[in-house]
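User: Hi! I'm working on a homework problem where we have to compare a predicted structure to a textbook description. Could you give me the structure for the chain below?
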Amino acid sequence: MADLTSTTSTSPVESEIVNLVARTIAELQQISIYIQREQVEIDRLKAESQIITCHTDMVVSRLRVQLDSLSLPG
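Assistant: Happy to help. Predicted structure tokens:
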């Protein structure tokens, strides 16, 4: 792949395009890093949510058992 930042004899428009492409690539790299960090946070929150859901299900199950034991027959 050609080095986009190499200095060769190019017109001002070509230089502008090369600079724009280089800036765009750098910005895309920063966005990629940001997305990776956000994905880590999303994964952490999903794991926490799963733990809370399991705990809630367990509490509800216990409450059902207690309610069933309090129910009067007939």
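For your comparison, note the following. The CA atoms of residues 4 and 18 lie 6 Å apart. The chain is about 80% helix and 0% strand. Good luck with the assignment!
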